[in-house]
Amino acid sequence: MTRWTDVPEPKQYSPISCASHSEIELAIMRRQRLRLGWCIPGEDMQVLECLPMDILSQSGEEFLIVEDTAGLRHRLRLDYIGELKAI
């Protein structure tokens, strides 16, 4: 049974740097595949090769919409992305 105290509190959103935001926007415009590493607090680092599709703002947070190699779409909170590399 999961208790509420076992669930990690989501951290307050922290905007990413303008340089990182621009790098993501360019990858979207150029349809450049990326290798992303991200980590949700309390979980292990995840790595995903994907095609960035769009940036979405919602409730004061920004998310990257990506499509993985299987064609599945994911929504990743930008401040959880720790690694970003064009491939």
Describe, in short, the structure shown.
Helices cover 15% and strands 43% of the residues. It contains one helix and five strands, in the order H-E-E-E-E-E. It has a five-stranded antiparallel sheet with strand order 4-3-2-1-5.
For the structure shown, list the relevant keywords.
1 helix, five-stranded antiparallel beta sheet, mainly beta, 5 strands, SH3 type barrels, single chain, globular, 87 residues
Task: Give a structural overview.
By secondary structure, the chain is mostly beta strands. The longest helix is centred in the N-terminal third of the chain and has 13 residues, at 18-30. The chain has a single domain (14-86), classed as Roll (SH3 type barrels). It has one helix at residues 18-30, and strands at residues 34-38, 46-58, 61-68, 73-77, 81-86.
Summarize the helices and strands and which ones pair or pack.
Layout: H1 18-30, E1 34-38, E2 46-58, E3 61-68, E4 73-77, E5 81-86
Antiparallel strand pairs: 1-2, 1-5, 2-3, 3-4
Structural domain tally: 1
Question: Which architecture does the CATH hierarchy give at level 2?
Answer: Roll
Q: Helix/strand/pairing class, anyone?
A: mainly beta
Number of strands: 5
Order of helices and strands: HEEEEE
User: Stretches where pLDDT falls below 50 for ≥5 residues?
Assistant: 1-9
Tell me the fraction of residues in β-strands, as a range.
Answer: 35-45%
Strand order, largest beta sheet:
4-3-2-1-5
Separate helix tally: 1
CATH topology: SH3 type barrels
Give the CATH level 1 class.
Mainly Beta
Query: Mind telling me the C-alpha Rg?
Result: 14 Å
Distance between the termini: 42 Å
Shape: globular
Helix content: 10-25%
How much is the average pLDDT? 87
Largest beta-sheet characterization:
5 strands, antiparallel
